[in-house]
Amino acid sequence: MTPPADHPATPAPRIGVLIVNLGTPDAPDAKAVKRYLREFLSDRRVVEIPPLLWQPILRGIILNTRPAKSAHAYQAVWTTEGSPLAVHTRNVAGVLKGQWGEAVMVDWAMRYGNPAIAERIGALKAAGCERILIVPLYPQYSGATTASVTDAVGAALADMRWQPAIRTVPPYHDDPAYIDALAASITSQLREIAFTPERIVASFHGMPERTLKLGDPYHCQCVKTARLLGEALGRPIELSFQSRFGRAKWLEPETESTLRGLAQDGVRDVAVITPGFAADCLETLEEIGLRGRDVFLEAGGQNFALLRCLNAEPDAIHLYRRLISRELAGWLDEL
User: Fold this and answer.
1) Is 210 left (phi over 0), alpha (psi -120 to 50) or beta?
2) Confidence at residue 12, expressed as pLDDT on a 0 to 100 scale
């Protein structure tokens, strides 16, 4: 059918794949960090305290004290290309481009900060993507991470008259391809370091303990990941949780306490992995690689190694190709 002469131009139908990670400030300075923290800590999925109680604390105390300290931490890990998290996430999207032909566009976004989810969904739709697959780079599901991405996608769609169809890659904490990718990456990196670790500690991002009691599956999925990874490596994995915030009781054991306790018990050589993070970031490079190292060595440890996240390495790309191809099934056939 030939459209009328005055019909607006429409692009050919395509499929969009949007890789999404947590977020990062635009720069390692207090102003940018404050802007980022305001958005991040205002998310009701992240901080579940009623806004009438929380916002005065956030705006009156936290945003006036924490940005400068956090900016200093970001400066310790910032690269010439920018934030490590943004660099690695962008690289993942870059390597995946073209993997499913020209009819599939691959883009990336951040839940907090830039590029924003709404902006990139709009760009994909404008380019003809009538179907978009959202790929949250969170192996383990949490309301504060995976669900928050879904919330942001829904908010973006609420402002669109012509909405694309949406699918979301589910959590992959026990997917064999994920466990295989982790095991291969860890095995390779252990060959690179100059010592054989007596213990391997798997540090996951912490969550308030109440989230577990409220039914969030995050803790259980972290435990399962660590168990399956230990089986794949043929050695036990020490599980711990990092990044506590505030006075509430958080998931335990806590990572710094675990590292200190190992050293005090006579363990001299430790390697730390962070399988809950898809890409190296402030929480891995600074919190574990610098502060965690200091805690272990000051308590009597001798050798410490932080192993890299999957980032955009071949093992990661193989994993994401498998996860994405599985979710694109059916859509690709209709192009």
Assistant:
1) alpha
2) 85
Residue 312 forms part of a structural domain: no
Same domain as 56, residue 26? yes
> 19: pLDDT confidence band, cut at 50, 70 and 90?
very high
Question: Over pLDDT 70: what percentage of the chain?
Answer: 97
Neighbours of 78 (CB within 10 A): 20
Task: Clarify whether residues 146 and 183 are in a common domain.
Answer: no
Segments of 250-319 assigned E as strands: 269-273, 303-306
Do 166 and 180 fall into the same domain? no
Q: Are residues 292 and 163 in the same domain?
A: no
The mean pLDDT of the chain is 96
pLDDT at 11: 80
Number of Cα atoms under 13 Å in the Cβ half of residue 153: 25
Kindly state whether residues 19 and 157 are assigned to the same domain. Answer: yes
Number of continuous H segments (helices) and E segments (strands) in the chain: 13, 8
**Extended beta strands in 169-326, E state:** 199-205, 238-242, 269-273, 303-306
